Prior knowledge:
- The chain has 119 residues and is mostly beta strands.
- Helices cover 0% and strands 61% of the residues.
- Strands 2, 4, 5, 6, 9, 10 and 11 form a 7-stranded mixed β-sheet that branches. It has a 4-stranded antiparallel β-sheet with strand order 1-3-8-7, with no helix packed on it.
- It is globular and about 45 Å long.
Amino acid sequence: QVQLVESGGGLVQAGGSLRLSCAASGRTFSIYQMGWFRQAPGKEREFVGSITWSDASTSYADSVKGRFTISRDNVKNTVYLQMNSLKPDDTAVYYCTAYIRLTTYDNYWGQGTQVTVSS
Length: 119
């Protein structure tokens, strides 16, 4: 099994910054891609960004481009989401996701971490 453990959420004022972390652990595995989704109250879960493990190429939702940055630590099997210039609209539960191969490739999810941006 694979576990994804997130940390770093909290309350911040508009214009502030937060950094989320997500560490993958468990049996021997190979990571293809990790990323972040978010879900605000009453809304569907939406894509935030992702990073491909082999070459660290990244992809972002238009709503966060230029403000959020995804990075990874290969040794720690950890993905980070640096969030700058936060807006109240960024308030949501942020979920880490990972596309990982044990025997086959499967998608895994973290438990979610709350980010609240006050105006």
